[in-house]
Amino acid sequence: MKRSVKWSIIITFAVIFGAGLVAGMWLNRRPLPAKLTNHTAPPVSYDALESGEAVVMNVYKEVSPAVVNIVTTSRAYNFWMQVVPQTGQGTGFVIDSSGHIITNNHVVAEAENIEVTFMGEKKHRARLVGRDPVSDLAVIKVDPFPEMAVARLGNSDNLSAGQRVIAIGNPFGFQHTVTAGFISALHRDMVIGQRTMMDLIQTDAAINPGNSGGPLISSRGEVIGINTALYNPTPTGGFTGIGFAVPMNRAKKVAGQITKLGRPIYPWIGIRSSMDLVPKLAQEMNLPPVNGILIFQIANSSPAERVGLRGGTRMAYYRGRPILVGGDVILAVDDTPTPTFDDYRNIILQQNVGAQVRLKVLRGNNELQVDLNLVEDPRIQN
Fold it and tell me: What residues act catalytically?
């Protein structure tokens, strides 16, 4: 009996000791190596990461020698009417072997002196060839040199949202800075100052002050846009994830005109002033409830006057604003409806000077069609 009690005590202590040992091991356990578990995590795909990095690195290596930092000097006056030099800064890139460089109009608009810096701190004096306030583009020129690099220009008509893009520029003066992102959207319109820039590329690649005029580049190393503006509803002035670029095909057309003629050429039919007509206003004017462009005034000797289009004939007020009523209403251009002036202008700007267009017009309660040839807009001033 005593022996049985003794063994019972020993067994009890052994159980307690074993339980404590197991509990201690549980509380201080270490995870088993991943290869010994049943839930092995997939390895990180470093090849994919390196592939994405390689695209950006290769594009930067190819295009950055053609990108320049632009520093401008202009003249301003202080309170005492003394001349105070003002400096500005932006980006541009070489588009041909003759030394032509494209940039934004707002980078060089007021410049009296223009200096560009290539990679390797090679500085060159540049001259203004011509500029276009409508598309915010300008062309400057340097004397060509043997090692000068030229950017490859791509086709901006074949872009898609989600496509990878790379931007190279000089934000805040930090030369040849590269950023990457994607095309966020296409065909965006943006109000800049007193004008609306239409059909822009939206990107989330970082664009800051100083990037203006720099290239937006595809993963193939082709320039598909000119970085122009950033959306910033805050007063900070920094990047918010929404930037805009002028499509390269439009830029090529404008740059070609500037390099040949020193100015851009825009088509025009001769409407001096107009307003968007909405159904409610149309009904108040005893017209059918339509959307279109109500013509106020037509320029003398213009294509519109020659084909007999009519402007307003009497004064009226709409929302407290004096307007001329009684004129023709443009409903469509080449069978494409024009509910707003921006729609009408976008269609006309896609045409060439000398091209013929057909207008669908509402006159009173009657619809008619007129054909006219576009002429160069004499109002575009450099």
Answer: 106, 136, 212
* Domains of the chain from N-terminus onward: 63-76+83-141 (2.40.10.10), 156-261 (2.40.10.10), 267-376 (2.30.42.10)
- Encode the chain (382 residues) as per-residue pLDDT tens digits: 445 545 555 555 555 555 555 455 554 554 444 443 444 445 545 455 567 788 999 999 999 999 999 999 987 766 666 666 788 899 999 999 999 999 999 999 989 999 999 998 899 999 999 999 989 999 999 999 999 999 999 999 999 999 999 999 999 889 999 999 999 999 998 877 667 788 899 999 999 889 999 999 999 999 999 999 887 666 555 667 899 999 999 999 999 999 999 999 999 999 999 999 988 888 888 888 899 999 999 999 999 999 999 999 988 888 788 888 899 999 999 999 999 888 898 899 889 999 999 999 999 889 999 999 999 998 775 5
SS3 per-residue string spanning the chain: CHHHHHHHHHHHHHHHHHHHHHHHHHHCCCCCCHHHCCCCCCCCCHHHHHHHHHHHHHHHHHHHHHEEEEEEEEEEECCCCCEEEEEEEEEEEECCCCCEEEECHHHHCCCCEEEEEECCCEEEEEEEEEEECCCCEEEEECCCCCCCCCCCECCHHHCCCCCEEEEEECHHHCCCEEEEEEEEEEEEEEEECCEEEEEEEEECCCCCCCCCCCEEEECCCCEEEEEEEECCCCCCCCCCCCEEEEEHHHHHHHHHHHHHHCCCCCEECCEEEEEEECHHHHHHCCCCCCCEEEEEEECCCCHHHHCCCCCCCEEEEECCEEEEECCCEEEEECCEECCCHHHHHHHHHCCCCCCEEEEEEEECCEEEEEEEECEECCCCCC
Which pTM does this prediction carry?
A: 0.77
